[in-house]
Amino acid sequence: MDSMVIEGGIPLKGGVSISGSKNASLPIIVSSIMFDNVDNEIDNVPDLEDIKTIKKLLISLGAEIKESDRADKVIINTSHINNCDAPYDLVKTMRASILVLGPLLAKYKRARVSLPGGCAIGARPIDFHLNAFRLLGADVEVDHGYVEVSADKLKGAMITFPIPSVTGTENVIMAATLAEGTTVIKNAAMEPEIDDLILALNNGGADIRRTELAVIVIKGVKKLNKLKHGVLPDRIEAGTFMVASAITKGDIILNDIEVRHLKAIISKLSEAGAKIIINSSSSLRIKGSKVIKSVDISTAPYPNFPTDMQAQMMALMTLSSGLCVIAENVFENRFMHVAELMRLKADIKVRNNFAIVKGVKKLSGAEVMATDLRASASLVLAGLASSDGCTTVSRIYHLDRGYEKMEKKLAGLGAMVSRVKEDEPAPIVEPIFNNKIHERDAQVE
Ligand code: EPZ
Q1: Mean pLDDT taken over the chain
Q2: Which of 149-158, 281-290, 415-424, 429-438 has the lowest mean pLDDT?
Q3: Burial level of 196, CB count in 10 A (0-12/13-18/19+)?
Q4: Shortest-distance Cα residue to atom 30 of ligand 1
Q5: 305 C-alpha to center of ligand 1: Å?
Q6: Which of 376-385, 413-422, 425-434 is most confident?
């Protein structure tokens, strides 16, 4: 298991290009199941472990991933899908594998997928997905750790989610795309990744409309033609690099982004004192402020402040000028990064789904362990800001699930970071203050 060694205290400077969205790529890639007898093309797909996993899953179903002329272009032909079973060993590594349920049910009227189980951040049930499939006319059996869905045919239905669910909305959209009649989803999630899926499906012959903010209407069609789509930029990667600039008092430009999807993040970082200049709809500049103001955070579904940015903002708040309260309202256990941040001398107290963060003057480098995707990002950000000693973040396979070439992108902004393979000795990274000692020694000599 690789680690990342970070020599902190260096303000990041320069430009960085943000990759395509992981959480848009995953549903769009699995939706190719509904487009057979054609080479489906999906562009701007990030090179991530989760993308590798979903490709493996599709191949296990019988799909063919073809060579493409660009690293970020995925070409999938699903004409020879001959299996509708998603095995435990694949699903357990990535719960988003449950997204194959919708398209398999739509196209082949059956699917058998291992229950994803929980993960570090919560139980992650899929009851909303299964209840919706039942309303569409499917039989749903849960047994021996697997969920099996089947239907003679799917008929449009009125579906209301108790609370917005991103993959729940995506699964139902895909299941309803080829159903007979019209499906209406109420209390549908509003994340931009869902609208990217809708755009991709409509360009391929589907008939899906977001008629109100939280209402999506799907008119079933008989057949789809070809999936050809460029995935939208990853707003969480963008937000993570914005925090990287704020926490290191840096000055960076983000390119290839979708500014309109970043409103809640821009607003919070501006409130915390960062100077943000919008260059265009796809580029912004963010300069960290000398004093990081304490701001309260309360996570909620889009368009509110995203839960996927909570850990990163907490890292920033550990160096703020006062006290703030961070409320995690989406997942029940998304504070796994707290104990590790405290190893870097952060001052944080957790009470239920609230974290009280008291800003400290400085963080000091230490060995910390990543526990989940966004927690690992939070630890890297804190390491970048730790001006006293190096930080080693272990188990960065979590990071590799959702961030493309993060250490390269950070190094491109001037960060002193290196990836250490498990069986390699850690590099001797001379912290800055040691160099000063050597210089002084040299003068004495
Ligand atoms: C998606 O997860 C994202 N994953 C998550 O990103 C993100 O944190 C989350 O949405 C919230 O924005 C992908 O898109 C692949 P939900 P999802 O269903 O769909 C409860 C990352 O870091 N719920 O919107 O699984 C659930 O427990 C990942 O990239 C049910 O109770 O989240 C949670 O409390 C982490 N029953 C709330 O709803 C259900 O059937 C929202 O979950 C489904 C959800």
Answers
A1: 93
A2: 429-438
A3: buried
A4: 125
A5: 14
A6: 376-385
Phi, psi of 166 (to 5 degrees): -65, -60
Amino acid found at 264: A
Q: What local confidence, expressed as pLDDT, does residue 428 receive? A: 54
> What type of residue sits at position 30?
V
To the nearest whole percent, how much of the chain has pLDDT over 70? 94
**99 pLDDT band (50/70/90 cuts)?**
very high
E strands of 220-265, at which residues?
228-230, 251-255
Q: Tell me if 49 sits within 8 A of 397, measured CB to CB.
A: yes
Phi, psi of 113 (to 5 degrees): -125, 135
Q: Report the side by side order of strands in the sheet with 85-86.
A: 85-86, 110-114, 146-150, 139-143
Residue in the block written with tokens 């850990």: 311
Residues identified as active-site:
119
pTM of the model: 0.94
Tell me what percent of the residues of the chain surpass a pLDDT of 90.
89
* Measured distance CA(355)–CA(316) in Å, rounded: 13
Interval 47-89: pLDDT, tens: 999 999 999 999 999 999 999 999 999 999 999 999 999 988 8
Residues sharing a CB contact under 8 Å with residue 172, sequence separation 6 or more, in sequence order: 102, 129, 132, 133, 136, 159, 183, 185
Burial class (CB in 10 A: 0-12, 13-18, 19+), 308: buried
Pocket-forming residues, ligand 1, beta carbon under 6 Å: 22-23, 26, 96, 122, 124-129, 163, 165-168, 189, 307-308, 330-331, 373-374, 402
Give the bridge partners for 142, in sequence order.
147
**Cα 168 to ligand 1 centre (Å):** 8
Determine the 3-state secondary structure of 14 from DSSP.
strand
Q: Which atom of ligand 1 is nearest to the CA of 164?
A: 24
Q: Whose CA is nearest to atom 8 of ligand 1?
A: 308
How far does the centroid of ligand 1 lie from the alpha carbon of residue 308, in Å? 10
User: Among 166, 307, 337, which residue has the most ligand 1 atoms within 8 Å of its CB, making it the best to mutate?
Assistant: 166
CA of 236 to the centre of ligand 1 (A): 14
Cβ atoms < 10 Å from Cβ of 258: 17
